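FORM 7B: Structural annotation worksheet

SECTION A. Query
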Amino acid sequence: MEVTISKCTVEDVFQLREIGYETFRETFEHQNSPEDMDAYLEKAFTLNQLEKELSNVSSRFFLVYFNGQVAGYLKVNVGEAQTEDMGEDALEIERIYIKNKFQKHGLGNRLLNKAIDIARDHNKQKIWLGVWEKNENAITFYEKMGFIQIGAHSFYMGDEKQTDLIMTKKLQ
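SECTION B. Predicted structure
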């Protein structure tokens, strides 16, 4: 098994959009209306939106490859790019997206460790993320990796208000 992780550039925008659409649908389509799903995807994964996110110096994207195939990606934020104000000592993991066919190969763990390495390189004291309260597989994974829930915030899927759990992990 060969796994590589590479930093994204603006040239990867089409790849990111494709992965974003595919993984978001795979994970959440069965629990949301088609209208709310389409509305969210059309807002979050437009080329303009992704190019804007890629050009933000406080955000970074990384593609993960499994045996030469793109399997998913990681997005991390620091400073003002964080979706919640968690302080200057924090790094946010905004997205860890792995295509279904590549799950259960340790790729999520590799991307999480990449985020931890970035946080340590920037002298951050903690990492944090938001995860949908109904995404039990992800919550279980993050708890196993040492995250604890410290709060919650609202997330809108189209017109539907949902709750994301805010989970954090202190770095040693």
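SECTION C. Observations
The helical segments are 13-28, 34-44, 47-55, 107-121, 136-144. The chain has one domain: 3-126.

SECTION D. Sign-off
Analyst initials: ____
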